[in-house]
């Protein structure tokens, strides 16, 4: 698997409207790494959905390049598209059919058996409601069934466009937990959203766009650090806290031990901490800056952009 699952270079897409030409994606250079959850963030109308449609071959760019699993799109899209699952638009599911029957129809069209249907229903937590009609599902359940449909072919990359739109807090939590579980199981997940505080709880890396242009990108901790300026304290979760603390103190960082984590100060970027520990065989299960949040970072990054 390539280090970058999605890479765009100077990507541009415009539309003709009654008011003239509207640029939806403007020389966008996007990089989505393999592994974990990548947040594709920006306000409504910033070009997120258009970019996703371009990557998936649902729209054609005016200019620029796209690589998906290191294959150029759209030229070699048929070679890699089966490695991708996506929920981009409202799925065409039948209200009078059960959740299971809807999945059976989709599975049959791609040559899959019933065993896989049971697996995805269990993954999204719908086994107990699989035989209820789709029209009786809550909005959150409908979204989870759409994700189940996208998981049928066991994709390496799952793309979710605004998956929590319109959901209540319980539904948002269900999607958040599902996304995190999928990433832990090895699926790379891209989640586009304008709800930055919510996405921060699941994302490992982010790309922030505005007016179709990339404004910031990288590991969440680095984006927050660069935006926050003075924010240089990180909360680390690691199995062997004593060994990790020894490595970091030896590197000249200040370390404070908490009950289940380490507070580390002195590093400019979270990636420095990650690298220091990885070189000594210590791997993190969690890292986040203390006192920073994506919403505040976004407001600072987009200051002067008119967003």
Please explain how this structure is put together.
It is a single chain. The protein is an alpha/beta fold and 307 residues long. The chain has 2 domains: 215 residues, 3-Layer(aba) Sandwich (Rossmann fold); 59 residues, Alpha-Beta Plaits. The chain has a 6-stranded mixed beta sheet, sandwiched between helices. Strands 1, 2, 3, 5 and 6 form a 5-stranded antiparallel beta sheet that branches. Helix 3 packs across helix 4, helix 4 packs across helix 5 and helix 8 crosses helix 11. The radius of gyration is 21 Å and the shape is globular. The mean pLDDT is 89.
For the record, what is the CATH homologous superfamily label of the largest domain?
A: P-loop containing nucleotide triphosphate hydrolases
CATH architecture of the largest domain: 3-Layer(aba) Sandwich
Provide a count of the helices: 11
Q: Given this structure, which CATH class of the largest domain is correct?
A: Alpha Beta
The protein's oligomeric status is single chain
How much strand content do the residues show?
A: 25-35%
The biggest beta sheet is recorded as: 6 strands, mixed
What name is given to the CATH topology of the largest domain?
Answer: Rossmann fold
Mind telling me the C-alpha Rg?
21 Å
* Global mean pLDDT: 89
Give the strand line-up of the largest sheet.
7-8-9-4-10-11
Question: Secondary-structure element order, as H and E?
Answer: EEEEHEEHEHHHEHEHEEHEHEEHEH
The tally of beta strands, per DSSP, is: 15
Distance between the termini: 36 Å
Provide the structure class. Answer: alpha/beta
């Amino acid at each position: 698997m390539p280090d970058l699952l999605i890479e765009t270079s100077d990507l541009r897409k415009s539309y003709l409207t009654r008011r003239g030409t509207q640029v939806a994606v403007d020389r966008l250079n996007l990089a989505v790494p393999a592994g974990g959850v990548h947040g594709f963030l920006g306000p409504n109308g910033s070009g997120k959905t258009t970019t996703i449609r371009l990557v998936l071959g649902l729209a054609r760019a005016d200019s620029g390049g796209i690589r998906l699993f290191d294959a150029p799109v759209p030229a070699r899209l048929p070679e890699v598209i089966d490695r991708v699952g996506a929920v981009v638009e409202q799925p065409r599911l039948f209200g009078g059919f059960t959740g299971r029957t809807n999945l059976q129809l989709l599975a049959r069209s791609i040559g899959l058996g019933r065993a896989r249907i049971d697996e995805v229903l269990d993954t999204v937590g719908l086994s107990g409601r699989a035989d209820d009609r789709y029209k009786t599902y809550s909005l959150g359940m409908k979204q989870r069934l759409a994700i189940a449909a996208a998981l049928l072919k066991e994709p390496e990359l799952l793309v979710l466009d605004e998956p929590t739109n319109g959901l209540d807090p319980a539904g948002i939590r269900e999607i958040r937990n599902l996304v995190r579980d999928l990433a832990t199981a090895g699926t790379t997940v891209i989640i586009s959203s304008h709800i930055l505080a919510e996405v921060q709880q699941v994302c490992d890396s982010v790309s922030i766009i505005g007016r179709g242009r990339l404004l910031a990108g990288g590991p969440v901790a680095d984006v927050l650090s660069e935006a926050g300026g003075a924010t240089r304290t990180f909360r680390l979760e690691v199995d062997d806290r004593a060994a990790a603390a020894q490595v970091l103190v030896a590197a000249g960082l200040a370390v404070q031990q908490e009950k289940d984590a380490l507070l580390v100060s002195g590093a400019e970027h979270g990636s420095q901490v990650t690298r220091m520990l990885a070189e000594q065989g210590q791997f993190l299960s969690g890292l986040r800056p203390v006192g920073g949040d994506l919403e505040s970072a976004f407001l600072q990054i987009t200051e002067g952009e008119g967003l």
